[in-house]
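Data card: per-record layout.
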Amino acid sequence: MRRNDEAKKVSVIAFLEDDGGRARAGYKGHAGDCVVRAIAIATQQGYQAVYDELFQLNKLTRSGKRGDSTTPRDGNTSKKTIRKYMEGLGWVWTPTMGIGTGCTIHLSASELPPGRLVVSLSKHLAAVVDGVLHDTHDCSRKGTRCVYGYWTIPGLNNDSA
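The structure for this 161-residue chain is written out next.
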């Protein structure tokens, strides 16, 4: 019975299909560009502007491993690049999971702070705006997907960071 009670407490996050301006920028087809989309949505910047800046940062921060690419379209923008870009905008990283801690925060409106967020998930980034998931697909796994951490802008999100 306890499992059923816990399952009932899971809060499903509202979802809004949003490509972050990708189609308006003239891009077609499928791409692994979740980093660009999530940042464009959360920061309210144009898709192409974010794409271009990440492209340039990727050139500077890529590790040289085989398969590395400088294009954000490939979905392999490094954590180092993302950190440099987001910190440059004044956004702050809040980790929600550490080694051995297990999942403490899920992709659920009731577990995330209000405001504009870029959330880090397993092999994916997404935008959450005032408790609504903005992405090209519902990646929430019905509120059970683990959030590794999130980016916020101090003062804009009504938090103390």
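Known properties of this structure: DSSP finds four helices and six strands in the chain. Helices lie at 2-9, 34-43, 47-61, 79-88.

See the next section for split statistics.
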